Amino acid sequence: MRNWERMRQEAEQAAQQQRWRDAVRGYYWATIARFESRGQWPLDQARTPREYLRLILPGSPKHNDLQLLTRRFEACWYGSDAASQLDCDTARQLFERLVAR
Description:
5 helices
């Protein structure tokens, strides 16, 4: 997996270009890569977003934020929801909170 900081930069570039869907995806995967770089869980590129979510204790602030980010990512990337600037801004805020912990 690519470096989490590079993924964040790519998400920010997508946001500047108003490619909201790509930006949301970038912030999501940058978060996952950051957790892996900290040893939160071992690298396993076969995991699904829901499997990553189950690796964090339910009810913890980190779980709640990752759950929100995962839902937004899934809706924008896999679902029929069109991503908006609000989705991107929310994903960025969740990313920042999650990597700060």
